[in-house]
Automatic annotation (TrEMBL):
Protein name, per record: 6-phosphogluconolactonase
Documented EC number(s): 3.1.1.31
Keywords recorded for this protein, A-Z: Methyltransferase, S-adenosyl-L-methionine, Transferase
Entry annotated with the keyword Cell division: no
Family: Belongs to the glucosamine/galactosamine-6-phosphate isomerase family. 6-phosphogluconolactonase subfamily.
Keyword NADP: no
Pathway(s) annotated for this protein in UniProt: Carbohydrate degradation; pentose phosphate pathway; D-ribulose 5-phosphate from D-glucose 6-phosphate (oxidative stage): step 2/3
GO molecular function: 6-phosphogluconolactonase activity; O-methyltransferase activity
Taxonomic lineage from the root: Bacteria, Bacillati, Actinomycetota, Actinomycetes, Micrococcales
Function of the molecule: Hydrolysis of 6-phosphogluconolactone to 6-phosphogluconate.
Catalytic function, reaction form: 6-phospho-D-glucono-1,5-lactone + H2O = 6-phospho-D-gluconate + H(+)
Glucosamine/galactosamine-6-phosphate isomerase domain location: 11-238
Length: 485
């Protein structure tokens, strides 16, 4: 699952003030239970304006700066004190005024000098500094907040579209020789280091960024839009102004409402999901499942954390011991389900794609649940027929999250595989409201319509539909109970 929360502010000025307020609040909050904190600063217009806004805020003195370490996501490779350096700009905007910030807590990327003559040398030295604060197994500290600006081309830090540096792994920092944006020589964190971040905040303002914002939020390949790969392990937050969202979120308003709140529907729903996620915290295994699916290039169509928790609670609610899933994908929903089962419980999950099945299987091994999950590869219609022919023990709960065209056939087959009173949950049946359009050209919409029509006339099922909004947009679940025999 690659969830990005998006908050839209009316303009760049309000955005910079909001980033400042949000960062100060986050630092204060984190300092109540974690020390030290590691924050990655960004250069760029809004990034520096945000630092200046922090400098003006009375709250800045509420932060214990002695417990904050500052790093940079990228640096322009010029001599120390040069006006182009992100460090120089950050010092002028804020750092020089922070008397309580120890000099040793500031970790700039080494500047061009006789001792550090190349971007590669600076990157190597910067990587060594990062390693000093890295936990075992990581190349860099687990940054609490990593701030990024983003260029109109979708670059973050100094990772530019189409450049080899985007795919460099195994090191924390990389030298850049041919930046399309001046100056050409730079140093950048790599994605390996960026993804050590607990939270990544991408800040973007202006209509010239709108295409890149839309592309990143759509999850386009990082080679094309590096900002799409800027992800935190706990949260990825996009803080943008209205102009930068005009190409984003199809179906959403082109601009934010004129009110100060300025959150468009999809964005607002995602933020609400994020707030409620305290009820559905994802542990390392779930985060790993989401990350592995993303790294393997699987489609970003898994359930959200809150939806996964819903499946978990439903499985517990019906006292499920045996669960059938149609559509494993990367195993994210499977993990939520298997964790609801007793020690002798089992999930049988069906997946048509051998590659998806491989990714999911590896995830189950790492999560330690492979002994409770059977991944059956092949077209679900055939596998369901085989399960029936094998006379498998009936299932207590079924989650159907496979292709919508065949829904009616799947649910018909499932009717013969479950116990009386079993619960069947079918995902994505509202489809942004398109389901009410009898002439809709999308075969998935027609597949859902055929399924609903057939269930409505099938005495074996008692059913309802729950419309939902959230980080997955506007959709819904069908809930079916197998009638008692
Ligand atoms: O060169 C850089 O540009 C980006 C974005 O800057 P912006 O002025 O378009 O907001 C910035 O994030 C990066 O740190 C900087 O080196």
């Amino acid at each position: 699952m690659t969830r990005r929360d998006v908050v839209v502010h009316p303009d760049a000025t309000v955005l910079a003030e909001a980033v400042a307020a949000r960062l100060l609040t986050r630092l204060l909050d984190l300092q109540s239970h974690r020390n030290p904190l590691h924050v990655v600063l960004t250069g760029g217009t809004v990034g520096i304006a945000s630092l200046a806004a922090i400098g003006r805020s009375p709250l800045r003195d509420a932060v214990d700066w002695s417990g904050v370490h500052l790093w940079w996501g990228d640096e322009r490779f010029v001599p120390e004190g040069h006006a182009d350096r992100n460090e120089t700009q950050a010092r002028e905007a804020l750092l020089d005024a922070l008397d309580a910030l120890p000099a040793d807590n500031v970790h700039p990327v080494p500047a061009l000098s006789a001792d550090v003559p190349t971007p590669d040398a600076a990157a190597a030295a910067y990587a060594r500094s990062l390693a000093e604060f890295a936990p075992p197994g990581l190349l860099a500290p687990r940054f609490d907040v990593t701030l990024f600006g983003m260029g109109p081309d979708g670059h973050v830090a100094s990772l530019f579209p189409g450049h080899d540096t985007v795919s460099v792994t195994g090191v924390a920092a990389v030298g850049v020789e041919d930046s399309p944006k001046p100056p050409p020589q730079r140093v950048s964190l790599t994605f390996d280091a960026i993804r050590a971040s607990r939270e990544v905040w991408v800040v973007a303002a202006g209509a010239e960024k709108a295409r890149a914002v839309a592309s990143a939020l759509a999850g386009d390949p990082v080679e094309q839009t590096p900002a799409a790969g800027a992800l935190g392990t706990e949260r990825t937050l996009w803080l943008v102004d209205a102009a930068a969202t005009q190409d984003a979120a199809p179906g959403a308003p082109a601009t934010a409402p004129a009110s100060g709140e300025g959150v468009d529907p999809v964005v607002g729903w995602a933020s609400v999901d994020a707030w409620f996620e305290r009820l559905a915290p994802q542990d390392v295994g779930l985060l790993d499942a989401a990350r592995s699916a993303q790294d393997a290039g699987l489609p970003d169509i898994a359930v959200s954390a809150l939806q996964g928790k819903l499946l978990h609670l439903l499985a517990q609610g019906v006292g499920a011991r045996r669960v059938l899933e149609l559509g494993t994908l990367g195993g994210y929903s499977t993990l939520w389900l298997v964790r609801a089962l007793p020690a002798d419980g089992r999930v049988v999950t069906l997946e048509i794609s051998p590659e998806h099945a491989r990714v999911a299987t590896e995830t189950f091994v790492r999560a330690g649940v492979d002994g409770q999950v059977d991944v059956l590869v092949g077209p679900a219609t055939q596998t369901l027929a085989q399960l029936a022919a094998d006379g498998v023990e009936p299932f207590d709960l079924v989650f159907v999250d496979a292709d919508k065209q065949s829904l009616a056939a799947y649910v018909d087959a499932v009717a013969g595989l479950v116990r009386p009173g079993a619960l069947v949950v079918v995902d994505n049946v509202v489809r942004g409201g398109a389901v009410v359009d009898a002439h809709h050209p999308d075969e998935r919409v027609q597949g859902v319509r055929r399924f609903v029509e057939s269930v409505a006339q099938d005495a074996r099922w008692d059913a309802t539909v729950l419309q939902t909004v959230g980080s997955k947009g506007y959709d819904g679940f069908a809930l079916l109970r197998r009638a008692d025999a």
